[in-house]
Amino acid sequence: MIICKSGTELSFMRKAERVDSGTDHFLVEHIEPGITTGELDHLADRYIRSQGAVPSFKGYNGFPASICASVNEQLVDGFPGKRKLNKGDIIAKTRQFTMSHAIRQYTENPNRGIPEQGPRLKTGMVLAIELMVHIGSRHVGALEDNWTVVTVNVASRARNEQAVAVTTDGMDIFTKLSA
Length: 179
Prior knowledge:
By secondary structure, the chain is an alpha+beta fold.
């Protein structure tokens, strides 16, 4: 079921996205070799709460932290913990909602979608579009925590996430609000 959001709900989501974006900017100032992903999670938790918000990840279906901290081979949903960052590591702090199947289909099989299939976009729909592209094996797996998705034999990877709402005026890209 796809739930269309009201104008008030979209307003709340915009505010939440501003806090999320602010958290990203705050954490960038603290990322350096030797810091652990657990320390970043603690900093993020404090920052989010200082903004009058509550981390949406923490406790969600048993997720133990305020952020997902995916490093290098970890594509998504990495548990923050004792892992120390090294110079050259790639780290991604991810949000709670993902919708990558359509993007994956496009990157693997561009222009091969079936026109007129699937639900039509309607005012109030919100999409979290998370693009993940990696060079190497197309195979992925999950760590023992059953959350962290990792690549197998990856040479390089890139990831980007956008929160987009369908409005009466077109698309509203929340993640651009405070970029």
